[in-house]
Each structure stands twice: as structure tokens, then as C-alpha cells.
Amino acid sequence: MTYQSKGRVLIVAGSDSGGGAGIQADIKTVTALGGYAMTAVTAITVQNTLGVTNVHAVPPNIVREQIEAVMGDLGADTWKIGMMGSADHVRAVMEAWYAVGDGAPVVLDPVMIAKGGASLLDGDAIAVIRDELMPIAAIVTPNAPEAEALTGVEVRGLDGQMDAADVLVNRLGAWSALIKGGHIEGDIIRDVLLTREGYRVFESPRIETRATHGTGCTLASAIAAYNAQGEPLEPSVEKARAYVMEAIRHAPGFGQGHQPLGHNWPCKIAS
Q: H or E element: which one contains 204?
């Protein structure tokens, strides 16, 4: 009997009260792209488009129990892992994947800093992600600062992106890595994907906008949504990038700071 993907995405991440990033952006994205979103909440953040003012961590054992409850009943085709906060949270998620994950591909978005600058990951957790969690990642999707923190490689342009991807895949054990270029200056944004088959560079013109809140969460969740519905990783990345670009163009313009994306644009077109 051939296994068929059912579009189920288990999202392990923090909540964003402003709805632009984190669990809220993840659910919107997966739903808009035709998948089924489930969650294990790692933290409750107090935030809006102007920034994060407080974070309340969910106990690691409760995070693991959420995962076990979902996997014991609903199952998942792909996991999307975002904000985890502490080393204990990282280990709880990793142990849960080994115990009940059933080998589901993991899209790992190593969230470290909020758009407004607030730290969302303890320093000791970075080492655990790098040394222990990376080998279960089907794809890891850091931006340039996150890639630097994980690899020690300076990421200021295409060469640095390629070098950081090489470390993540060939030294740290991720199956593939997407080093995003949004933080790198220039009119063209380049994202570098490295798989076991080699490099691919995606290019797109930079859109001058304040609607950039949650772009990383949204991209990773879009990759997970496509993958959970049966797309291989490379086409999932290509389609996810296109989705995010349109979500930026369809941004509703809410908030005074870093504004959210228009996650539901495919639904508007369909109607």
C-alpha cells in the first residue's frame, strides 16, 4: 500500500498576540495553502507590530504532552519547528520527535530574535539546536544572523550564505539548508538552498515595504504545508517563496511598526 500525504502539519512554536508571526502566522499559512494545522505552543508572547514586551514560556513537559496528544490521534505528515526558547524546550521537542514523530520530515526555523529586536532564544539553546537537533532537520531555514550564530560563518553575501549552508548540511547534519538573504543589503534578495544534490540560488526583487513581520515563520510554514501535501523539498521551497512574495504584496497595512503579511491572499483569489 502506497502512503499518501494528507497535508497535516504539526507546528511547534510560540504564540504572537498580534497575529503576524509565530503560531498565528503558521496556522494562517498552512490553512491558506490547503493543509491542516495542529500546534504545540512553546511560549505565549505579548507583542504587536511595535515589538515584544513579555514572554511566558510553556513548561517543556507540557510542550511534549501537546505533541504526544496530536501524534497519538491525528498524526502529522510534516513538522514545522519555530520558536523554542530554551535548551530544555529544544530537548523536549527533539525527544518527542524520536519517540512519536514516526520519521516525519522536520522544517526547522531557528527563531532567535523577533523583528523588533527582542531575544526569543536562550544562548545555551543555540548549541543544543546546532549539535543535537540539526540532524533531524529535513530543512533548516535561518536568516543571515541566525546562520552566523549557528555556524560561526560571516554571512554578508552569496559566498557567506553558501559557506554557512555547507556547514549546516555537511558538518552539522541537516539534510538541506535554506540561507535566507533578506537581511543582506541589495535590491535583489538571494536565498541559497543546499541539498545533498548541490546548491540552488533563488532570486527575487526586494519589495520596499513595512510588511515584513513574520516572513520567516510564514516561509517555513509554507514549505511545511507544501511538503505535507506531497511536494518534495526543493519545489516546496520554490512555491513557498512565491507565496510569501504575494503575501507581502497583499499585506493589509495593519499596525504602526513591522506590519503583518496578507496570509489569506490565495483564498481571496479562489473566491
A: strand 198-205
Identify the CATH number of the domain defined by range 8-270: 3.40.1190.20
Banded model confidence at residue 85, pLDDT cuts 50, 70, 90:
confident
C-alpha cell read off for 20: 503576524
Catalytic residues: 180, 212, 214-217
Give me the mean pLDDT over the 58-86 stretch.
97
* Sequence spans of domains, the chain: 8-270
Among 137, 18, 160, which residue's Cα sits nearest to residue 78?
137
N-terminal to C-terminal alpha carbon distance within the chain: 36
Mean pLDDT of all residues in 225-237:
97
Residue count of the chain, please give it: 271
| Helix or strand (DSSP H, E) at 205 | strand 198-205
Contacts 24+ apart (CB under 8 A), 189-193: 190/158, 190/161, 191/161, 191/237, 191/241, 192/158, 192/161, 192/162, 192/165, 193/165, 193/234, 193/237
Minimal CA–CA distance to 218: which of 195, 250, 186, 196? 250
Calculate the alpha carbon distances from 217 to 115, 172, 196 in Å: 11, 22, 24
pLDDT band (50, 70, 90) for residue 117: low
